[in-house]
Structure formats: structure tokens, C-alpha cells
Design goal:
Layout lengths: L1 H10 L5 H22 L4
Helix pairs in contact: 1-2
Length: about 40
């Protein structure tokens, strides 16, 4: 959660910030899923 909040603070709250925040959250989610699969979890 802290990582997401740090990204939001870094990106800011401008008009195109929502797009970048969405992309960052998607990348974090994909990394989490990949890590869980590597550990053998689902």
C-alpha cells in the first residue's frame, strides 16, 4: 500500500495523472501475481 501512495504523491493530481497511476497499479499487481506464482501460490 505504501508503494502505491508513494507513486500517487510522485505523479501528482493533474489531468493525466489518473492514467499514469492506473498503469503503475497495474504493473504492481502484475508483479505481485508473478511473485505469487513463482512461490507456488495461487
Amino acid at each position: 500500500m505504501r508503494t502505491i501512495l508513494d507513486k500517487i504523491n510522485l505523479i501528482g493530481d493533474g489531468a493525466q495523472s489518473l492514467y499514469f497511476i492506473d498503469k503503475e497499479i497495474e504493473a504492481i499487481n502484475q508483479a505481485t501475481v508473478a511473485a505469487e506464482k513463482a512461490e507456488g501460490g495461487e
